[in-house]
Amino acid sequence: MSEILMNREQIMEVIPHRDPFLLIDEIIELETGVRVKARKHIREDEFWFKGHFPAYPVTPGVLIIEMLAQAGAVCILSKPEYKDRIALFGGIDKAKFRKQVLPGDTLDLEVEIIRQRGPVGTGKAVATVNGRRAVACEITFVVTDSNKDE
To answer: Were 64 and a residue from 10, 16, 104, 135 both cysteine, which residue would form a disulfide, CB within 3.0 to 4.6 Å?
Structure first.
């Protein structure tokens, strides 16, 4: 098991997400502005399982993409020049869903920043369970001030 670099409280010092929408549990590797590895432990009591689906609980793919985006946000917003900023979606491309993610699974979330120009960039993102790819996509982000109307 990898060492934990950041727990939920430390993650909340970097990104603005809070319960029930803070969807990552720990950061296990971080090369600020370059790449990140995070984890999400999928518990039976996750809020989405109440309706998706009660008789067959499966984590929605779009929430896994959000988990990847939050991990990527930690990577970018850890840069000193982006302190107290937020990262918004600019786009989601090449999304592929390959494996169902169920209660009891641990998702390993990896994001590598492949392009960045100013506040806009793209991350290559992969979520795996026990080494098996569950979701892969490219996420475009825009870093902005949290108090702007855009």
So the answer is: 135
